[in-house]
Specification:
CATH architecture of chain A: Orthogonal Bundle
Radius of gyration of chain A: 22 Å
Radius of gyration of chain B: 32 Å
Shape of chain A: globular
CATH superfamily of chain A: ABC transporter involved in vitamin B12 uptake, BtuC
Strand order of the largest sheet of chain A: 1-2
Number of strands of chain A: 2
Number of strands of chain B: 2
Largest sheet of chain A: 2 strands, antiparallel
Shape of chain B: elongated
CATH class of chain A: Mainly Alpha
Distance between the termini of chain B: 80 Å
Structural class of chain B: mainly alpha
Order of helices and strands of chain B: HHHHHHHHHHHHHHHHEEHHH
Oligomer: heterodimer
Strand content of chain A: under 5%
CATH superfamily of the largest domain in chain B: ABC transporter involved in vitamin B12 uptake, BtuC
Largest sheet of chain B: 2 strands, antiparallel
Strand order of the largest sheet of chain B: 1-2
Number of domains of chain A: 1
CATH topology of chain A: ABC transporter involved in vitamin B12 uptake, BtuC
CATH topology of the largest domain in chain B: ABC transporter involved in vitamin B12 uptake, BtuC
Order of helices and strands of chain A: HHHHHHEEHHHHHHH
Helix content of chain A: over 70%
Number of helices of chain A: 13
Distance between the termini of chain A: 78 Å
Number of domains of chain B: 2
Largest interface: A-B, 62 and 64 residues
């Protein structure tokens, strides 16, 4: 039974993150996702200090707040201080992560979070943390309920605002012209990434969140040009990585989160090599066409220079 | 007095820790300047994460924790990660940031998997491998220091010898290629040096925070200078300072993590630089903006006096605020402040609540009006724009055109008499 709960948690995290990841990849914000997943740490610690316990709601609020603050800081450094974007991301998230680790050490006796858990989580303990009602009814692991709710929230947002998110992603100026606020949808997306990050955080750790945010979406992107299909494929790749990662981890007795991240990479590598459309061994037609264009251009140049 | 105890460096442990922290921070700060200028700051993050599987693999293969063996493993996977980022970016439609994210998270996942597998295997020799995760600046041993010292020296010598070439490929790769430099080779050397710096620095601050040691000092230093040599020295000094400070804090409070404190200090330095640096800082920029805004208001007021003078055929009529606002709408408080400034500078003369041109004011107002009309004419003649589309553009450019540019435009337009709206273009001799 416990393997089932672990795989289910992994799959829920995988689907939630992969769906959001599709938007991040297309908006060229993959590293912003990475930054948020690290920078929520001080938010979690502060929520812990204020609420005095490991309750979910304060942590979600704390981390959500930090997630928004991170995107805001990155924007500020980039736009107002004119720091180049990659450096703005790097400076912001390392600073906030350092702040989080320092806070943990300062309040070590009050805060029950440890650094390693932050990085690679403890998905193996998910089945132990059960949600038992006052009446004594066992409702299964808490993590399942939390991740499940976040996934439903993400799904509802994507389904109801499919068009808005799509248009602001692909063509911000057109979106602005037909009256969608790009800034609004940007922050909606960023808050969802923060929520997903912090909810996944305890069970799988920051690194697996990043892997699930970026890798399955990128894999799906190599297979299709249709956005709806990309979302579905990304979710499927996410689930596949979660299941196969669990098997791998139990084979070599290692970290489950690490193994799941490894499997996202293995699936990416396979698709990267064999994808019919964009893989390394794709049909030659495309390259032939480019080759033809180059040949024609050469002929044109030599004609002109004569 | 803990302060003197620490800074007299009598305790050999303190000496090792301080020397180690300085060495690591300085190396990464120097190399970071190049990665920063090549806009590849986050690649350092990918390398830092990719080091972990290399360390674990070389431990699995050799079964010992010899720093040199671990460094070789780290160097191989770190280099591989850079290669893979470039490979994925060039072979697929994925952008560089996605490629970095993929490589970073997957390599780190593999690293964690191997690390935990090693820990669970019960090999007694393994303890301490996880110091790569969070750094161990506070517990550097002499033998660590020698191996990292050697790496650091190799690295700094490399930068010293190829300084000119690295500068060139960082600023203008195409030019470097055109003058026949072996760009690919140089990039490979620079990449190797970056990997070396990451592998060394990771010992101080750990995987996640390593990116800060590369990016933050360089980004901060960039706000103080335009000169690369100075930028490097500033970055190195900032890095060294944060290294000493981090070591000092964990000496005062041994439970404090050294790495995060080093990053905290360097981040604070960076944030101060971003906000307060002269010329490039946020405040300096704001001040510049306000100054430009004032200049534009003042010039517009003088132009307004000139236009009203043209209409009345008398440039030295006294005018009230309301009569000015009738012709051109602007914010009343801006107008009042502008009038006060212009009176003080001697362009306007004030009598009670009326203002009128002085000779100097008339000359300046005439010049702004002339530039406006010249630019309108230039746009209609050379860009074939319709006469009713050129006003807004001229409204901006009239404050920017230099006397040299003005004479060029006059020459091009052959000293025209009227603008596209048939208004006279005023010259000094009129």
């Amino acid at each position: 039974m416990s393997s089932f709960w672990i795989i289910l948690t992994g799959a829920l995290v995988a689907v939630t993150c992969s769906l959001l990841g599709c938007y991040l990849i297309l908006r060229r914000m993959a590293m912003v996702g990475d930054a948020i997943s690290h920078a929520v740490l001080p938010g979690i610690v502060l929520a812990f200090l204020i609420s005095g316990s490991r309750q979910t709601i304060p942590m979600l609020i704390g981390a959500g707040f930090l997630g928004i603050l991170t995107t805001f800081l990155i924007e500020f450094l980039h736009k107002k201080a004119r720091l180049q974007e990659d450096a703005s991301i790097g400076v912001t998230f390392t600073w906030l992560f350092a702040l989080g680790v320092i806070l943990i050490s300062v309040f070590a006796n009050k805060v029950d979070i440890d650094q390693e858990c932050v990085l690679y989580g403890e998905i193996a303990y998910v089945p132990l943390d059960l949600w038992i009602t006052d009446a004594g009814l066992n409702l299964g692991p808490q993590a399942i309920w939390i991740m499940g709710s976040i996934l439903i929230l993400v799904l509802i947002t994507i389904l109801t605002s499919y068009k808005e998110l799509l248009v602001t992603t692909f063509d911000p100026s057109y979106a602005a012209a037909i009256g969608y606020s790009t800034a609004f949808w940007h922050y909606v997306l960023m808050s969802m990434v923060s929520l997903a990050t912090v909810a996944s955080f305890e069970s799988v750790g920051a690194i697996l969140v990043v892997a699930f945010l970026i890798v399955p979406a990128a894999t799906a992107y190599l297979l299709t040009d249709r956005f709806g299909l990309m979302l579905v494929l990304a979710a499927i790749f996410g689930i596949l990585s979660a299941v196969s990662g669990y098997v791998l981890a139990s084979q070599i007795d290692g970290s489950i989160a690490g193994a799941m991240a490894t499997m996202t990479g293995v699936i990416f590598a396979l698709v990267f090599i064999f994808s019919p459309k964009y893989g390394l061994f794709r049909k030659k037609s495309q390259t032939d066409k480019t080759g033809m264009i180059i040949e024609e251009n050469k002929a044109g140049i030599s004609y002109k220079t004569q | 007095m803990k302060f003197f105890e620490f800074f007299s460096f009598t305790d050999p442990n303190i000496r090792y820790v301080v020397a180690g922290s300085i060495l690591m921070t300085v190396c990464s700060a120097v190399v970071g300047c190049f990665t920063f200028l090549r806009k590849r700051a986050l690649i350092g993050d990918a390398v830092a994460h990719a080091v972990l599987p290399g360390v674990c693999l070389s431990f699995l293969l050799t079964g010992e924790k010899n720093p040199f063996v671990l460094l070789i493993g780290a160097f191989i996977t770190g280099g591989l990660s850079i290669f893979l980022v470039e490979f994925i970016t060039s072979k697929t439609k994925l952008k560089e940031d996605s490629a970095i994210g993929i490589v970073l998270s997957v390599f780190f996942g593999i690293g964690i998997l191997l690390l935990t597998a090693i820990q669970h295997s019960g090999n007694a020799n393994q303890s301490g491998l996880d110091s790569f995760l969070f750094g161990k600046a506070a517990s550097i041993l002499p033998e660590d220091l020698y191996s990292f010292g050697l790496v650091g020296v190799i690295l700094l010598i490399g930068v010293f010898f190829f300084f000119k070439e690295f500068t060139l490929i960082s600023f203008d790769r195409n030019f470097a290629e055109a003058i026949g430099l072996p760009v690919k080779m140089l990039e490979f050397i620079l990449t190797s040096i970056t990997v070396l710096a990451v592998v060394t620095g990771i010992q101080a601050v750990g995987v996640v925070l390593m990116a800060a040691m590369l990016i933050t000092p360089a980004a901060a230093a960039r706000y103080w200078t335009h000169n690369l040599t100075i930028m490097m020295l500033v970055a190195a000094t900032m890095g060294a300072f944060s290294g000493i400070f981090g070591a000092y804090i964990s000496y005062l409070a041994p439970s404090m993590p050294t790495g995060p404190w080093i990053v905290m200090v360097i981040s604070m330095i960076a944030i101060i630089s971003f906000t307060f640096a002269p010329v490039k800082g946020v405040f300096a920029r704001l001040r510049k903006q306000v100054k430009n805004q004032k200049q534009i208001t003042d010039e517009n007021i003088l132009k307004l006096f000139f236009q009203l003078g043209e209409k009345d055929q008398d440039f030295f009529t006294e005018r009230s605020i309301n009569s000015l606002l009738e012709r051109r709408s602007m914010r009343r408080d801006h107008l009042k402040k502008g009038l006060a400034r212009l009176t003080e500078q001697g362009f306007l003369a004030k009598t009670k609540d009326h203002w009128k041109f002085t000779e100097a004011g008339k000359a300046k107002g005439q010049r702004v009006a002339r530039l406006h009309r010249l630019w309108e004419l230039y746009l209609t003649q050379y860009l074939q724009l319709a006469p009713d589309h050129v006003h807004d553009d001229a409204e901006t450019i009239e404050h920017i055109i230099t006397p040299e540019l003005e004479s060029k435009i006059l020459e091009q337009l052959q000293y025209p008499k009227v603008d596209p709206h048939d208004t006279k273009i005023p010259y000094k001799d009129f």
